[in-house]
Design goal:
five-stranded mixed β-sheet; elongated; alpha/beta; Rossmann fold; Dihydrodipicolinate Reductase, domain 2
């Protein structure tokens, strides 16, 4: 069995990763991690995940037992896990979003020593959407307006979502645009649409798991590509799939496209 540690074990995503891993025959959860002082420290990870007592308590330090660490924590938690993984030569799956440029640079630097899968979204469907959106942008060309809308639950800390940013960047790459110069975050007041800009809009509504839609339009038609996540399990299953794929990989920074062979 593949021994996994889960960083952010007390969070919504961490609990679902733990539940699905415990219920599987492929994975063994050997550690659950949270920041020192977190309310879940010392609690049984199985009970937190809603699957009953499992015998592994949430702690704040990574042991040497794990074959791979799955991280759904916070940017600070990701860096802490990264340092522990480098020390233990443990591969890492990073699903945490909201990292700064300097933090992403630290991830890239660590990939010289360990194998890392990093993705803004671990869903298989979303990663297929990323490929479809890039293909659509290339085929439709620069004459089509592009608007991206995303919706998530009220507790999500970062906006726009990492997935929405990834969608925008994939379009920019295909069309030869500069992300920083092309993207407009929402609109208000007197702001007629400028040629070539990409609109990015974020909604935070109740318990919405995750919705993304990319609209391409000109004066004669609109093409919309969209994805809706019904439960967090779709992200958890993708992360576990990435964890299994990482075993035995050489050091490097991989994406879900690599995991899925896209």
């Amino acid at each position: 069995m593949i021994r996994i540690a889960i960083s952010g074990a007390g969070g919504r995503m961490g609990r679902r990763v733990a539940a699905l891993a415990i219920e599987s025959e492929q994975f063994d959860v050997v550690a659950g991690l949270e920041a020192a002082g977190h309310e879940t420290i010392g609690k049984d990870i199985g009970e937190l995940a809603g699957v009953g007592r499992f015998g592994v308590k949430v702690g704040s330090e990574l042991s040497g037992q794990a074959d791979v660490l799955i991280d759904f924590s916070s940017p600070a938690g990701t860096l802490a896990g990264l340092a522990a993984c480098r020390k233990a030569s443990t591969p890492m799956v990073i699903g945490t979003t909201g990292l700064t440029d300097s933090q992403r640079a630290e991830v890239a630097d660590a990939a010289d020593q360990i194998a890392i899968v990093q993705a803004a979204n671990m869903s298989v469907g979303v990663n297929v959407l990323l490929k479809l959106v890039a293909a659509a942008a290339k085929a439709l060309g620069a004459d089509y307006d592009v608007e991206i809308a995303e919706a998530h639950h009220r507790f999500k800390a970062d906006a726009p979502s990492g997935t929405a940013i990834a969608l925008a960047k994939s379009i920019c790459q295909v069309l030869g645009k500069d992300y920083g110069e092309s993207v407009v975050f929402g609109r208000g007041g007197q702001c007629p649409r400028k040629s070539g800009e990409i609109g990015l809009h974020a909604l935070r509504v109740g318990d919405t798991v995750g919705e993304h839609a990319v609209h391409f339009g000109n004066l004669g038609e609109t093409v919309t590509l969209a994805h809706s996540a019904h439960t967090r399990d779709t992200f958890a299953r993708g992360a576990l799939r990435a964890a299994a794929w990482l075993i035995g990989r050489k050091p490097g920074l991989y994406t879900m496209a690599d995991v899925l062979g896209l």
